[in-house]
């Protein structure tokens, strides 16, 4: 039996769109290739000077890679990251997250390129192509940093040990270096930075988390007020005080213009997993261990375990019901075929509620 590859629906659509659009882009560039002129596809990728009449490119350009090297990396990262996040969250939450971290960085990068064109009057800024899965890749790293902040990645048999919280900054630096090569466009650096900021802002302040139905608090919690997911935690220890002070100033400005809402004491307690007051069965208030996030994680783990057991049971049942290969290829002798057929029909009748079939004899017809 061939191995079954289980890909969640949103991740499957993401991979199909990436491969299809990248192949279409490669075919168009191959057909229009010229030694003297650069090729841009303004109706598929985002080109600031040409794509305003194609507004869908602000979203579709994220799933277009320009070479086989970046396409292979994109397929691997989207498959692994999308499958993990879709199972940890839900298909709807992942789809919303993908739309936000695709659209916002592309719009901000578009505005940045236009801004530099206004300053320099150099058309290379507005003719640069804004494309690629870089915003999605760095957004996945930020999401992993939220889910497993204390996890450590070990590479080269323990030679390199790296915390997950450090990966977004390192990825941004790597993109900045590759942006100087033909592998990535100059806009890739801005996509990485804006993707980092957009994904962290959404997860920090806006994403709806799994509610604690037993707690005496609102039915929906938004954001992640935990200290481990603070913006300064992504940076090395010497830079944390400076980054924290700057981030606090920016946050105060966003609160003043009502783009962000300060976290309440209940939100901070829930993020830390502190004991929250709950109403007991007798009507009094009693303390219960664990907060909303801890309870949500516990219920999610139970649901995933139950789903895994069901999948294993279904797989085992399908394997048992699979027909076994026959020991001989030749059929039974002609003389034994009626008895074999009748025995099979009798067994089938027993399975269908003890029904029985008896053929009429020749004497009854007369």
TrEMBL record:
This is Rhomboid family protein. Keywords: Membrane, Transmembrane, Transmembrane helix. SMART domains: DUF1751 (SM01160). GO terms for biological process: retrograde vesicle-mediated transport, Golgi to endoplasmic reticulum. The keyword Protease does not apply. Residues 281-290 have a biased composition (Gly residues). The chain crosses the membrane at residues 97-119, 125-148, 169-190. GO terms for cellular component: Golgi apparatus; membrane. Its main location: membrane. It is a multi-pass membrane protein. Residues 274-297, 314-366 are annotated as: Disordered. Residues 355-366 have a biased composition (Basic and acidic residues). Residues 314-347 have a biased composition (Low complexity). InterPro entries: Rhomboid-like_sf, TMEM115/Pdh1/Rbl19. It is found in: Membrane. The keyword Transmembrane applies. It comes from Cordyceps javanica. It holds the Pfam family DUF1751.
